[in-house]
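Work package 3, deliverable 3.1, input record:
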Amino acid sequence: MSPTAHVVYGGAAAAVIYPAAGAYSLVFWAASFLIDLDHYFDYVYHNGFTDLSFRKMFDYHNALDAFWFNPAFLNIEMFHTVEVMLPLYLLTAWTGSALLLAVFFGFVFHIALDMVYLYRNGIFFMRAYSITEYFMRMRAIKEKGYRPEEILEAVFSDINGRDKRA
Ligand SMILES: [Zn+2]
């Protein structure tokens, strides 16, 4: 789902909870779209930290869309995993912090929207929701003879070539 859509849906939900949550609804709203900052880490990690451009991060993710139905493709976004969400939940419960609770619900709201979006596009399982799941499925993909690195090579030659043509 696009960042703009997340800002709009998150803003609508924040408006609904504002009477009850007050200023925390703004924290909820910010969390509901800032969680996608992990897409930036995804980009810089996969280019080996050779490029930090924010614009090219969008090019990278747009180019990846073409491989949604490729059997070698599997996506993971760090903040969208149980390994991040579970500790965040435990920390929230342990501290009883209203601020962390607003962040937690913002993240949950966002991930739920993503799941609906992915499901509707027939690609619910294109994303791994756990780091363990990701490594297990990646190993299975490679064992079947698929080469995920070819997708990255194609994506990077596409977005870097675009740069030269521009
Ligand atoms: Zn997301």
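The chain has a mean pLDDT of 95.
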